[in-house]
Amino acid sequence: MPDRAHVINLCAGRLAFMLGFVAAGLRGQTTLLPHSLAARQLEAIRAAYPDCHVLDDSCKSDLQWQDSPRNASLDVDEQATAAILFTSGSTGVPQPHPCTWGSLAALGRLDAQRLTGSRQMNLVVTVPSQHMYGLQTSVLLQLFGDCSVHDGKPFFPADVAAALRAVPAPRALITTPHHLRSCLDAGVALPPLDMVLSATAPLAAELAEKAELLWQTTLLEIYGSTEAGTIGTRRTTSGEPWQLLPGARLDCTADGAVYHASHLPAPLALTDVLDPVSSGSFRLVGRAADQVKIAGKRASLAELNRLLLQVPGVIDGVVFVPENGSRTAALVVAPHLAAAQIVGELAQSMDPAFLPRPVVLLERLPRNELGKLTHTALQEAIR
């Protein structure tokens, strides 16, 4: 490892990423985790952190392996900054978020307690390790739980199935709603699954029911953020309420919610609107920015998107408000439909004030590796 203060870890393989991440900690270096591997984003990070070096998958070549105790301790300063993660930019410009080794360790132990019951499990993860959700599942559940992870990051449904068959039971699939839908639509046969875990976007109850029935498994969902990691979890088919992590609490007012958790250095103001159900559970109403007002009427973009995805023949789509726009627009993947047909179908269930115009038909939506649609990507696509 070069003698630098920061390292950008671009490793795609789970083994290489883990090696680089732990080596950086042992050298007292802070790992920078970009939300995107686009050249422009990497250049911006290198400009902001000039005292850095870059690790890629070649870092594991020519290593001399030694046997070591399974439970060897990781001798790092808990107060040291382990990583700086960058938000995805789904609502604007990506923002840096530093995490200490102590906070990541506490989060990893809480996740292991909630998600796996601290029991041994073998994971196949489809999301990049550079994202908080990927870091939690492909790194923290190994370091602070009792999990092992498949080295690859499978993309196509057949590759996901092959990766799952390559690991022994008990096994779990860690993925996103978009990827989950692709696997279900492809109809691939999966080996027995002890758990499916989804995050990064709301999961429709119908999709969760289909996955549990087809794969004979339990599907859990994480609600969280780059800043906090896991905030709540739920079994989607059991109802709307989310369960807070042990010891966490919410302060909800008309102005928003503040999250208190033992793994966070300070209370965190959330950008979402939450409705408390009890001291340990809540309902997710949606993002404050998710509400749109047109012609004196209000609607949730999440609900408008749900109606769009229910149109027969629509494979994928999103409703949003373009910059400087006075009404909604939509990007839609529907190979056998015309835009007018889509609008006509939506008119049966959607208030006319929120009918999207224009409706732009695409071969695929500009989703990133997490299946997210960033603010910038949406604006560029509609232009």
Q: How would you characterize the overall build of this protein?
A:
By secondary structure, this protein is α/β, with parallel strands linked by helices. It folds into 2 domains: 282 residues, ANL, N-terminal domain (Rossmann fold), CATH 3.40.50; 88 residues, GMP Synthetase, Chain A, domain 3, CATH 3.30.300. The protein has 10 helices and 22 strands. A 9-stranded mixed sheet has the order 7-6-8-9-10-11-12-17-16, sandwiched between helices. The model has no long low-confidence stretch (mean pLDDT 89).
CATH architecture of the largest domain: 3-Layer(aba) Sandwich
As a percent range, the share of helical residues equals: 25-40%
CATH topology type of the largest domain: Rossmann fold
Q: Ranges with pLDDT <50 over ≥5 residues?
A: none
Assign the CATH superfamily of the largest domain: ANL, N-terminal domain
Number of helices: 10
The largest sheet, given as strand count, sense and whether it forms a barrel, is: 9 strands, mixed
Number of strands: 22
Percentage of residues in strands: 25-35%
| Total of domains | 2
Mean pLDDT across the residues is 89
- What best-fitting shape do the alpha-carbon axes yield? globular
Q: What's the gyration radius in Å?
A: 21 Å
Strand order of the largest sheet: 7-6-8-9-10-11-12-17-16
Distance between the termini: 44 Å
Q: What would CATH call the class of the largest domain?
A: Alpha Beta
The secondary structure category is alpha/beta
